[in-house]
Write a structure and sequence with these properties.
Length: 135
């Protein structure tokens, strides 16, 4: 999509529809079971700013006549969409609600609520799904 989004042959509304209907679902596929770290959240935010930056090509400055990149605030004014991290967290909460409502005898509920046996390693423990849901 690198060469496709900055293309001048397609309108901006069509590019936004392509982003919402094709690219975004691929990026957040299976996000209900992810355990996001701060690094991954930061990378998703960078991706989220990079795509509209390719759709809305650099603008020409009226004073100097040079092209410049759009700032994040200008991108948000031109293209308002729900933040990708917020979408992931809301989908995760919907999934957790669904799993708790299906019953305790199902395998998915046991995996979500059950406690794994054994001990964690001595190094810093990784986040697990329960930690993310509680946060």
């Amino acid at each position: 999509m690198k060469n496709f989004l900055p293309s001048s042959f397609l309108s901006k509304t069509l590019k936004i529809k392509i982003y919402r209907n094709i690219i975004l679902p691929v990026v957040v596929y299976g996000c209900e079971t992810w355990s996001l770290t701060m690094r991954e959240e930061r990378r998703l935010k960078v991706f989220e700013n990079r795509v509209p930056r390719r759709i809305f090509v650099p603008k020409r400055d009226e004073v100097t006549g040079e092209y410049r990149k759009l700032h994040n605030e200008e991108l948000n004014d031109q293209y308002c969409s729900p933040k990708i991290v917020r979408v992931i967290k809301s989908r995760r909460m919907k999934w957790a609600g669904y799993v708790t409502s299906i019953g305790e005898k199902k395998g998915v509920h046991i995996l979500l609520v059950g406690k794994p046996g054994g001990k964690r390693a001595l190094r810093r423990p990784r986040h697990i799904r329960d930690d993310n849901i509680n946060m």
